[in-house]
Amino acid sequence: MFKESSIKISEKLTLNFLNIENYSQEFIELIEQEIGFIRNGDLSNENIKYIKKAIKAWFHKKGNDERPKIGYVAEFICHLYLRSQNFEQYFLFKNLEENGPKKGFDGLYLKEDEMWLVESKSTSDLKKTHLSKIKEAYKDIKNKVESVNQKDNNPWENSKNHLDNRNIKENVGLLKNINKISQDFIDQTPHKVEEYNIIPSSTIYLGEKYKDIDDVKLKAELEKVCKKFNAKKLNILCVNKKSIDEFINFING
């Protein structure tokens, strides 16, 4: 469905390359199955009709500004893929105060009892590359986990609020861990990015110039730059996508 290549470079580094030109019927069915859980939590049961209406309203509010729209769809596809790979979601794909994407980390997951943090970056600027967007995503995660500046947003507090939501599966151990790191932020006790498993994600919208990812070329580029990244484990996600049109068609349907 994702036309993906998954390349395990080492125990520390895995590369995932996705190619999404059009939405097949199977892909649409996967979205229908997952969109409510991604947006509202695995224990939610909201009717998909109202999920679509809420997302449609948020898109409409953004008017002609394409940047938040492409970011939203890119991040949604990232979560759709990770869930298909048995990552367990422990956040809502929305702010608790509004219908838009959440603040703080873009995603908090568990897989085989290991915590993973996600940061999604996207662009429709064809001068940008997956390499540059992955660097940007890594830098953002690093800044968030290492900051103890009280002027910055506490991303762990945000994660804690999402974990407390009744539509999120209870996980006492994870909540205890997040609460401890949140307290460390308040106490200005620093942490390092190498303590965490991270998923930097890059999505490039190619429009009529769509083509699949050159796996060999991108693999070589990422292997080189990832040697400079400090993380417990790295799961890199790169997506070539044609446009957001088919997602908009879906929520309008």
Brief account:
The protein is built from eight helices and seven strands.
Characterization of this structure:
The chain is α/β, with parallel strands linked by helices. The chain has one domain (5-252). 43% of the residues lie in helices and 19% in strands. It has helices at 25-40, 48-61, 66-84, 130-146, 155-163, 172-186, 215-226, 245-252, and strands at 5-8, 13-20, 88-89, 107-111, 114-123, 197-205, 233-241. A seven-stranded mixed beta sheet has the order 1-2-7-6-5-4-3, with helices on both faces. It starts with a strand and ends with a helix. 35% of the residues are buried.
List keywords for this structure.
253 residues; alpha/beta; seven-stranded mixed beta sheet; 8 helices; globular; AbpA_HamA_C; Anti-bacteriophage protein A/HamA C-terminal domain-containing protein
Range of strand content = 15-25%
Shape: globular
Biggest pleated-sheet summary:
7 strands, mixed
Number of strands: 7
What's the N-to-C terminus distance?
21 Å
- Supply the number of structural domains: 1
The chain-level structural class is alpha/beta
Alpha plus pi helix count: 8
**Series of secondary-structure elements, N-terminal to C-terminal:** EEHHHEEEHHHEHEH
Q: Any low-confidence stretches, pLDDT <50, length ≥5?
A: none
Helix content: 40-55%
Instruction: Determine Rg (CA atoms, Å).
Output: 18 Å
- The average pLDDT is 95
- The neighbouring-strand order within the major sheet is 1-2-7-6-5-4-3
Protein name: Anti-bacteriophage protein A/HamA C-terminal domain-containing protein
Organism: Mesonia aestuariivivens
InterPro entries: AbpA_HamA_C
Pfam families: HamA
